From TrEMBL:
Residues 39-88 form the FHA domain. CDD domains: EAL, FHA. InterPro entries: Cyclic-di-GMP_PDE-like (IPR050706), EAL_dom (IPR001633), EAL_sf (IPR035919), FHA_dom (IPR000253), SMAD_FHA_dom_sf (IPR008984). This is Diguanylate cyclase/phosphodiesterase (GGDEF & EAL domains) with PAS/PAC sensor(S). SUPFAM superfamilies: EAL domain-like, SMAD/FHA domain. GO terms for molecular function: cyclic-guanylate-specific phosphodiesterase activity. The lineage of its organism: Bacteria, Candidatus Sumerlaeota, Candidatus Sumerlaeia, Candidatus Sumerlaeales, Candidatus Sumerlaeaceae. Residues 131-382 form the EAL domain.
Length: 387
């Protein structure tokens, strides 16, 4: 790609503004640094950043930074330049997170610290294939994140000895027209532009904000997305902010068991959680390769046994019952409380109680719903402990 700059010696090492997007049919994602020098976008070979698509004008638009603000101007293009889906006709300032379209080609505006790149554009390696509805959905996703357009959901976690609600797991769904409500679908869109960690944070924050005033004794279990562990400092910062805003709400950070592989990272996270008064749970224990070594060396506060281990346990053979009893005893000896996930039948809950499980979760007690009940006992579900 052409690097049409008059002074390539210092390039853009002081650039703080970027455009990020795909420059072909969804396989190469690029980051374009913008500095005080005008950067022209267009189909022509004389453009500073060529976009070779039929609906892009020869010189389509230009961008520059002035007094710290990023500006964009349409160059009388045939198919238009759009900021947050509004066509522009005069110089327009841009903000971090804005979505810019050159005709139908979408880019996201971002602002970061100093750039140390020596080229006018940086290709981001390993970028995912652009979803078919990317130009519309990613722009809307940015809006969802900015405005926190989500509905928090809560699934009860019940104390088996009493049948009373001990805690809630915080989940959520999207609430913005034009986007799917399913968190799985939203995470797929977010993953295409590296925003899944931000989406995870929005779900956590919304859940605690809506439910904190009526927190049950065990508080709220909040999920940590896999992508957040690659930026441990960012994760800790977000949890610290959550704790600062809600200092008295019991919180449990929930990690999928498969993520508990890097002892150094888990040890650091555990240390920071202790400082914040946040408990730790390993989720889906037994779903794949159960890591007993990690359980021994970095024990959590809670261990959530996967549904595959406890579903139908009332009809299970002696070998399975003995294995579960052994695992529960081992966890208890390490100071870990045990939770059975995915329970749907009362008889399974009773067997789990006899095996020593402390808590249970599943459709037997309630599906994930908006802030659900004021009572401390799940409606219609009797205690499974002794009368």
């Amino acid at each position: 790609m052409k690097n049409n700059t008059n002074d390539s010696s210092h390039a853009s090492h002081t650039t703080q503004w970027y455009l990020e997007g795909f420059v072909d049919e969804g396989t190469t994602r690029c980051r374009i640094p913008i500095s005080s020098r005008i950067v022209r976008i267009g189909r022509s070979t004389v453009a500073d950043f060529p976009l070779r698509f039929d609906n892009i004008s020869r010189l389509h638009a230009e961008l520059w930074v002035e007094a710290g603000t990023l500006w964009i101007r349409d160059l009388e293009s045939r198919n238009g330049t759009f900021v947050n889906r509004c066509r522009i006709s005069e110089p327009t300032p841009l903000n971090d997170g804005d979505i810019v379209h050159f005709a139908t080609r979408e880019f996201r505006v971002s602002r970061q610290g100093q750039v140390k790149s020596s080229s006018t554009w940086d290709t981001l390696k390993g970028a995912s294939v652009l979803p078919a509805e990317f130009p519309f959905r990613v722009g809307e996703l940015i809006r969802l994140l900015r405005e926190e357009c989500v509905i928090p959901l809560y699934q009860p976690i019940v104390e088996l000895a009493t049948g009373k609600i001990w805690a809630y797991e915080v989940l959520g769904r999207g609430a913005l027209a034009g986007l799917p409500s399913s968190p799985k679908d939203l995470l797929e869109i977010a993953a295409s532009v590296g925003l899944e960690a931000e989406l995870s944070r929005v779900f956590r924050k919304a859940g605690i904000r809506s439910g904190h005033a009526s927190a049950p004794p065990g508080g709220f279990f909040v999920n940590i997305h896999a992508s957040e562990l690659s930026d441990l400092s960012g994760l800790i910062y977000s949890l610290r902010a959550l704790r600062s805003e809600y200092p008295n709400v019991p919180l449990v950070a929930e990690l999928h068991e498969a993520l508990v592989t890097t002892q150094e990272a888990i040890a650091r996270l555990r240390e920071e959680l202790l400082k914040l008064g946040i408990s730790l749970a390993y989720d889906d224990f037994g779903a794949g390769q159960s890591r007993l070594v990690e359980l021994a060396e970095a024990p959590p506060d809670y261990l959530k046994f996967d549904r595959s281990l406890v579903h139908g346990v009332a009809e299970a053979g002696q070998e399975r019952l003995e294995m579960l009893a052994l695992l529960v005893t081992y966890a208890h000896n390490r100071g870990v409380r045990c939770l059975a996930e995915g329970l749907e039948q009362q008889q399974d809950a009773e067997v789990c109680r006899r095996l020593g499980f402390d808590y249970a979760q599943g459709y037997l007690y309630g599906k994930p719903d908006p802030w659900p009940w004021s009572a401390s006992t799940v409606p219609g579900t009797p205690p499974v402990g002794p009368a």
